[in-house]
Amino acid sequence: MDVTGGSNLVRNIFFASVQVDTKTGELLSTSTNYSIGYYLRFISPEAIRVSIPISVSFIESTTFKDTDGSMFTVVMNKTDDTIIYSLVIGDS
């Protein structure tokens, strides 16, 4: 995909996690692409989702539990701004 969402057959705007700047040839990786990488690296296929995905206009989050009991949370800041995020486990 280029940075405008093209090219595709129906000529609509489409988002891709990896894009190419057609003017410079530069490969652009988005925050979504990095999040996908964390899912692939740390969450096994046997893991189950144990939290409801949180999605607001600027942040997304979800947690998985693996077969060994370990848990992994992926949090994605969808903005360029620094956001303070607290992860609360249990009653703490």
From TrEMBL:
- Domain of life of the native organism: Bacteria
**A Pfam family per the record:** Glyco_hydro_30C
| InterPro entries xrefs | GH30_C
Q: Which residues form the Glycosyl hydrolase family 30 beta sandwich domain?
A: 47-88
Question: Under what name is this protein listed?
Answer: Glucosylceramidase
| Species the sequence originates in | Maribacter polysiphoniae
